[in-house]
Amino acid sequence: MLNKTNALIYFLAFSSGFSIMGIELLGGRILAPFFGSSVHIWGSIITVFMLSLSFGYLLGGKLSIKRPSLAKYGSIFLLASIMVLPIALFANPIMEFIFTHIEDSRYGSLLASTALFFVPTIILGMISPYSVRLLVTDSEHSGQVAGGLYFVSTLGSALGTIITSFYMVLAFDVNAIIIGFALTLAVLGLLAILVNKLFLAERRYA
């Protein structure tokens, strides 16, 4: 059961990396109708994602100290799902408000990126350090585990970039893709919580 649990954690970390880059890439499409698609628009998006991920890594590491479990891990995915959904539901009114009040597209795009992506990306950033904590069983192999985890997560990010940009945006509306990411994160979170319950039940009756 332990090996299966570890495989699940790697899969979830892969999926989180996929989702992060997919959503970041869609950020350009979401902001483009209001602020264009020039280099400073992408600069705003990348800045917000990098900054929010850094906070997420910090918070995820702190959260993992206190009795880490798959249930709490799954809860992060559920929270991320809830935070991602408003991107699809409220992006247009938020950007319309910012667009009409801030003339400079540099600062408008930066504020819009912050309003839409800052909080959900913080939550998504919490997943990687929490994953490492769940996988590490002894300090001797902690570096190897962390390296493997970040390899899997970054591989997910690369595939998320390619698949979103090459295929998803051609087949689906941007909001539909965002909702798809939110639903996927919710399913993954529920899966982690379910596996945690099965693991506890197995230990109880072992």
From TrEMBL:
This is Glycosyl transferase. The lineage of its organism: Bacteria, Pseudomonadati, Pseudomonadota, Gammaproteobacteria, Alteromonadales. It comes from Pseudoalteromonas nigrifaciens. Keywords: Membrane, Transmembrane, Transmembrane helix. The chain crosses the membrane at residues 7-27, 39-58, 70-91, 111-136, 148-170, 176-200. SUPFAM superfamilies: MFS general substrate transporter.
